[in-house]
Amino acid sequence: MQPYFNNPRAHKDISEVKESIKRVKFRGALWVDANCVIIAGHGRLMAAKELGMKEVPVIIMDDLTEAEAKYLRIKDNRASDQSTWDEEAYLKELEELREMDFDVSDIEFEGATLITDELEQVVEDEEPEPPEEPKTVRGQIFRLGEHVMMCGDTTDPDDVRRLMEAAGIPTRGGGGFDTY
Predict the structure, then answer these.
(1) Domain 1-105's class?
(2) With bands split at pLDDT 50, 70 and 90, how would you rate the model's confidence at 120?
(3) What is the pTM of this model?
(4) Most exposed residue of 102, 104, 162, 163, measured as fewest CB within 10 angstroms of its CB?
């Protein structure tokens, strides 16, 4: 079995994969083509080698054409890039693992906590008094990286137009909110 020479997925840090293998053993299998060249599982193989494993499960996909193997190499790796987290489900799973006294320190995002208590009442913050000497004045435009912010009035068409123009967003001109 050999790694694919032009693997499109870089594996600079396999510490997460190694930790997973240490904690729950090697699960799943490497996918290889008819020539035993890896299609999927490069990172898992690297981790297994670093952990001193001599054998790993392998699925030989000898019915794939060369084009299908190349396609699958990319498609398998892109699938995780296109996924998002369901935050509520993730936090519920973490909480259940914590209740089972399972160490989740290597899979929890910083500050991840499931909030289950409902608020009995909502308390509105009091509006703060404006400072005697404001640091910004109406009409000032600030660039924050690729974002643009303005001290202004969102109900004023001229303020909105100036902000849009500063952000490079074309406006149709005229009155009202006919920007796009």
Answers:
(1) alpha beta
(2) low
(3) 0.54
(4) 102
Name the amino acid, one letter, at 48. A
Q: Is 73 exposed, middle or buried (0-12, 13-18, 19+ CB in 10 A)?
A: buried
**Residues 8-50: pLDDT tens digits?**
778 888 888 898 899 888 888 999 999 999 999 999 999 999 9
Q: What stretches of the chain show up as alpha helix (H) in DSSP?
A: 15-24, 42-50, 66-81, 87-99, 157-166
Tell how many helices (H) and how many strands (E) occur in the chain: 5, 5
- How many other β-carbons are positioned within 10 Å of the β-carbon of residue 111? 5
CATH 3.90.1530 range(s) for the chain read 1-105
Phi-psi category of 36—alpha, beta or left, where left has phi over 0 and alpha has psi -120 to 50? Answer: left
Return all residues near 18 (Cβ < 8 A) that are at least 6 apart. 47, 50, 51
